[in-house]
């Protein structure tokens, strides 16, 4: 699976990049038809504690799945986004099996 990590107006350190790739790679265990994943990291301009935004777009055969989560840290937001995508991938896999 191809994983693209992009950040808006800042540079991702290697530790965070490795964490992202590890988490997103684990999504392929729930659905083997994943082609690629795009991860976008943003900082919200509002002066709130939860200003880290993670968006993940997963391209699978016939469809794209998307999750966007905001939290205090990128790691927490990534955990929440991947959990949401796991549910979507499982639901999509079950839907395809019924057809």
Gap from first CA to last CA: 25 Å
Output the CATH topology: Double Stranded RNA Binding Domain
Quick check: average pLDDT?
Answer: 91
- Compressed to H and E, one letter per element, the order equals EHEEEH
Strand content: 25-35%
Helix content: 25-40%
| CATH homology superfamily | Ribosome hibernation promotion factor-like
- Please, how many domains? 1
Query: What is the SS-derived class?
Result: alpha+beta
Radius of gyration: 14 Å
| Count of separate DSSP helical elements | 2
Major beta sheet summary: 4 strands, mixed
Please report the total strand number as a whole number: 4
Low-pLDDT sequence parts: none
User: Which strand order spans the largest sheet, edge to edge or round the barrel?
Assistant: 1-2-3-4
Overall body shape:
elongated
- Which CATH class is shown? Alpha Beta
Instruction: Just name the CATH architecture.
Output: 2-Layer Sandwich
């Amino acid at each position: 699976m191809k994983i693209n990590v992009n950040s808006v107006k800042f540079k991702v350190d290697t530790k965070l990049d490795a964490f992202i790739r590890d988490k997103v790679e684990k999504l392929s265990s729930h659905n083997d038809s994943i082609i690629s994943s795009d991860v976008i990291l943003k900082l919200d301009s509002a002066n709130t504690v939860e200003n880290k935004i993670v968006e993940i777009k997963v391209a699978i055969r016939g469809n794209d799945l998307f999750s966007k989560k905001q939290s205090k840290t990128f790691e927490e937001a990534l955990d929440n986004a991947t959990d949401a995508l796991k549910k979507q991938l499982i639901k999509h896999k079950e839907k395809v099996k019924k057809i």
